Amino acid sequence: MLFSFVPLLMLMDGQISRLEGVILLIVYGWLVKKMMVKQNQEDGNGKTKIKLLISALFWLGLLILSSQVVVTEAKELAKIFELSPFLVGIFLVSGGTTLPELAFNIKSAQKGEVAMSLGNVVGSCVTNSCLALGIAVIIRPIVVVDDGQLVLAAHQYGLMVLVLATFIISKHRLEKWEGATLMALYGYYFFLQISRL
């Protein structure tokens, strides 16, 4: 999870360049290689692999299309309500894109697969901060307009990661009150951002 801080370090000069975007992609590739667990995979026939590939490409295309709609609509909402694009991004867009993960985590928890839930959260964190951001920055570099919002977001994110890591490392598990604490921290961060309007 510490690697999710890499973009924040890159933003210390107020921007993330295309070169830094390439570095993020390299970091992601290295992390994926390190995290891959060698395991025996069941052999599947050629037809099954082709069907899986076609299915994956279809859903990827649908995901890209829906992402475009979410970004366009969020942009319009920001204009209509005269909100900061940063604020819309960290709450509305990120909330919408997190809903599938939330559904997955709830199902995993109900089935007792809590480790899968945690893996999903950590993997998503690293994927968003290195892969997704890396690709976005290569397309168009990021320049920070409001340093105050960035500093607040960085501090709150750091606090949440520190609290989460402390909870997990202490007992190798998360309890209900700890989950409630993380939700309260998010609510506090939401209040801080809204109070800046």
Descriptive notes:
- With 197 residues, the chain is mainly α.
- Helix content is 79%, strand content 2%.
- The protein has 7 helices and 2 strands, in the order αβααααβαα.
- Strands 1-2 form a two-stranded antiparallel sheet.
- α2 (18-35) packs antiparallel against α5 (114-139) and α6 runs antiparallel to α7.
- The two termini are 30 Å apart.
Annotation, overall tally of beta strands: 2
User: Low-confidence spans: pLDDT under 50, at least 5 residues?
Assistant: 38-43
Q: Estimate percent helicity.
A: over 70%
Oligomer: single chain
Strand-pairing-aware structural class: mainly alpha
Tell me the major beta sheet.
2 strands, antiparallel
Q: Could you report the average pLDDT, rounded to the nearest whole number?
A: 78
Strand content: under 5%
Radius of gyration: 19 Å
Report strand order across the widest sheet: 1-2
Count of helix runs: 7
Order of helices and strands: HEHHHHEHH
What characteristic shape results from the CA principal axes?
globular
Spatial separation of the terminal alpha carbons: 30 Å
Quickly describe the structure:
The chain is an all-alpha fold. The protein has helices at about 5-10, 20-35, 45-80, 85-110, 115-140, 145-170, 175-195; strands at about 15, 140-145. The chain is built from seven helices and two strands, in the order αβααααβαα.
Record keyword descriptors for this entry.
2 strands; mainly alpha; 197 residues; 2% strand; two-stranded antiparallel ribbon
What is the element layout, followed by pairings?
Elements (H helix, E strand, L loop, with lengths): L5 H5 L4 E2 L1 H18 L10 H35 L4 H26 L3 H26 L2 E2 L3 H25 L4 H20 L2
Antiparallel strand pairs: 1-2
